Amino acid sequence: MSPSCIINQPTAFLTRCGASDRQLFKLHLSGGFGGGGSSNANKKVSGKGSQKSSSGKKMNPRDARRANEQLAERYGGDVRRGTQERILSSLESLDPHVREAAELYKVITKFDALVAPMTPADRNRLIPPIQSQMVDDERKKLQTIMEEHNISERELHNVYQRITWDASADAKAIQADIVGNAMKPELQGRVTKACEIAVQATRSEFALGKVLDVGCGHGAIVRSLVDAGLSEPDMYMGIDLSQIMINNAVDRYGSARNGRTGKGRHFVADDFLTHDFGAGGMSVFDSVIFCSALHDLPDVEASIGRAASLLRSNGGKVVIVHAQGAEHVLEQHRANPVMVKRGLPTSKEWADILKKHNEWGLALEYDPADPKSARDMKEGYLAVLTKDSDR
């Protein structure tokens, strides 16, 4: 589910003179995706150019050209600009107190990310006291709103995630259709490896035959899981915060049915951290896979803890993959800390996290490559956690 940065205004504004002008803190959303969510966001692009390619086949050039033209037309002539407009429109449509809280959260998060790597001396030298005071005032105001309206930081993070992914959902899905849902070969190979690990967990002695895809988007890795051997549709569940992403996933991959049980793939639009999996009858899985998704969630540790609670014992696996690598995610964080709160855990960080949370029963089976390492450039990011037999 990983975006190019949406809220991508440079944070260098914090060191400008004249910072007492509150307009310095009125950041705007800038582009990075295509697509948009709107009241008619789930309408298909009409004509031959709209033929979907969930089979993995690229559209022929004529159909691809038509699909691109129809997509651009649908978003006012420019997909990127249309996406930005939909993001801004969605923000404006929020309840006033939520909109104000979200704006304050954005400003504070950007400021905190800017000053976090600074030494105290650098902060005193580069950040005028009046700017720090303004942010402190904004922080108090945000805290008041959150307490009065019972809003959490996770929910504010999810406001930006949901709006952004809703806005980009249709175009991302259609653009994937055009290329047959294919990535560059070297990136696809990394995703394929992760999917093979997730599927292999469904074949062991204690397997239940279930895979959970967190941040599934429009079903981007369904085909990769099928190619890796996830043959029965009802072995798969995908969850995503964006309803429009889920609508696209259902439209493309929800029609397949298990010939024996009559059941199909299960897609749900909800918050992974709070969703009641038991209500859908799929509360335990052989593997939980985060493909380009973990860093989009508001709390990495809580997300891994939730995944652990959904895993079967005796070899259930959490698989975290980002084909573009750990350094790519760090670049996203630096450019857009509102959407990407932190980088992916390093091997050392995983050791510390798992030691801290021994109750999860997870062990690091496959160490990820560190950012900027030769291995990160060659392999991308892949971490595999296995649940032991006693949990």
TrEMBL record:
Q: Where is the composition biased (Basic and acidic residues)?
A: 60-72
Q: Where is the composition biased (Low complexity)?
A: 39-58
Disordered, as annotated region: 36-72
Q: Does the keyword rRNA processing apply?
A: no
Q: Does the keyword Membrane apply?
A: no
Q: Which CDD domains match?
A: AdoMet_MTases
Give every Methyltransferase type domain span.
212-315
User: What does the UniProt keyword field contain?
Assistant: Methyltransferase, S-adenosyl-L-methionine, Transferase
Q: Tell me, what is one Gene Ontology molecular-function annotation carried by this entry?
A: methyltransferase activity
The biological process GO terms on file are:
methylation
Q: Which domain of life is it from?
A: Eukaryota
What is a single Pfam family found in this protein's UniProt entry?
Methyltransf_12
Protein's name in the database: Methyltransferase type 12 domain-containing protein
Gene source species? Stephanodiscus triporus
